[in-house]
Every structure is written in structure tokens, then in C-alpha cells.
């Protein structure tokens, strides 16, 4: 007798049917998610681009033909050719190698910034949603004030007060993006609180912390993941802007924003010095935005339910 029959005989019929239904439900849910996520070609393209950039960052030391910081003063501002596919910069450094290694900085800043801003915003949003009306109103009015201030102005102020580098850029961008998470989480919490199962949990004496962990957090995870994915693109754009203005990742680090700044004075003679890293920024931001749209379609029950 095989193992499947032994297990089947040891489980009562009603419990076995429930277990079988749960397994089938999990499989169908995964298939439905995959089908909804990949149903649009533009999302597939964005997903492929994200995977390519991730692999490029992980294998940068292997893929890059040169050391991104190695200077060759005999090849200053060299035109694209067999030895240097995208040419060299004003210090003779290979442009392609610097773009490849720059993907690491872009992804590192994007991931760290999103984690910082999402953590702060989620905690404050949960506190505001489960607080009394006066504290909730106070938190949301402060959030509205922070959102009304141009993010670039706050980022410049914070970045100028901190030392330049990845840590300073992450703090500067993270502290300007978390109010959007507060608005999202607070709205989700206020909506979930009206459901009957929350009232039932309260009537059974469940603690507020238990309700938050077991019921509320589960319902806010999906929109939070979508927003974090889209915010990745915004964080990368913000880092590139700060680096271009000289308050972000400074040379000799291979950051795409600082590379655009270094090359803009050679736009008439060597336009690739600015255009190539600018295209890299545009492609990566586009890819994350498309992946965010795909996740929204796959995680939203209303949109996903329309698929047959």
C-alpha cells in the first residue's frame, strides 16, 4: 500500500474533503494571480526588464568589461567602438561598465528607501486608524501638511543637512515619501474596521493588537505591496535628481544621476555620456511602474474577479 492510501485512511472523510478543497483553492488562487499579473503584454515587458536589471546588478562584476573606476587618460572621451561600446567619460572610464555597476546603487537606494518609508508610514497609519477621532484627525492633518510641501524641497533640505552617500539619500527620500503610506494605510484601516468580523472579534474580547495582526494587516498587505513597487520608481528618480544636483551619490561612485550631471557639458560632442544613464533611469522606472500595475490587477479582487 502506498503512502497516499495510508494517509487517506487515517483522515476522516469530512476532514479530508476540507483539506483537499483548501489545497485546490490555493492552487487555483496562484493560477488566478499569475494569469491576472501576466495578462497584459506591457506588464510582461516590465517584469522582464526588472529581472534583467536585477541580474545585471547581481552579476555586475562578471558582466562589466572594465573596472568602473579605472581611468585611462589615453582614452579620454573616446567615441563608441569595439573596445568601449558606449565610449568613455572625461576621465577615460568605460561608460558601459559604470552604467552596469550603477544599477546596484539605483536598486539599493530604491529598496532601502521603500523599506524605510513603508515601515514608518504603515506604523503611523495603523496607529491613526485605531485611534480616537481627535488623534486620527491630528495625525492626518499633519500628514496633509507634509504632502503639501514639494518633496524635492524637503529632500534638498534633508540631504544638505546630512552627509552625501547612500545613507543620507535613503533618509532624505524616505522621510518625504512616508506620508503617502500613512494616507493609504489609514484609509484601509478605517474601511476594514467596519467589517462584521472585526465587530465579532471585539465582542469575543479580542485585544486590539490581536485584531491588528490577525485581521487588519492581512487586508492592507496587498495595496501596500502595490504602492511599494510603484514607489521604487519614484525613489530611483528622486535619487537620480539629488545626485544630478550634487546632493546625492557623489563621484567617483557610479550613480546614474551623477553620471548625467558629469556628461551634460559634453552633450554636443559626446551625448551618450548623459543620454545612456538617463535611458537606464527611464527604463528602470518604467519597469517598476508596469510591475506595480500588474500587481494591482492581480491583487485587487474586483479586477481579478473579472478574469475568467
How would you describe this structure to a colleague?
This protein is mainly α and 308 residues long. It has a single domain (47-305), classed as MetI-like fold. It contains 13 helices and no strands. The chain has helices at residues 3-10, 13-37, 41-58, 60-63, 95-129, 133-148, 151-161, 166-192, 196-203, 208-244, 256-263, 272-299, 301-305. Helix 5 (95-129) runs antiparallel to helix 10 (208-244). The radius of gyration is 25 Å and the shape is elongated.
Summed up, what is this model?
This is Peptide/nickel transport system permease protein. The chain is mainly alpha-helical. It has helices at 3-10, 13-37, 41-58, 60-63, 95-129, 133-148, 151-161, 166-192, 196-203, 208-244, 256-263, 272-299, 301-305.
The whole-number mean of residue pLDDT values reads: 82
* Shape label: elongated
- Proportion in helices: over 70%
CATH architecture: Orthogonal Bundle
Percent strand: under 5%
Membrane topology: Multi-pass membrane protein
Keywords: Cell membrane, Membrane, Transmembrane, Transmembrane helix, Transport
Family: Belongs to the binding-protein-dependent transport system permease family.
InterPro entries: BP-dependent_transpt_permease (IPR050366), MetI-like (IPR000515), MetI-like_sf (IPR035906), OppC_N (IPR025966)
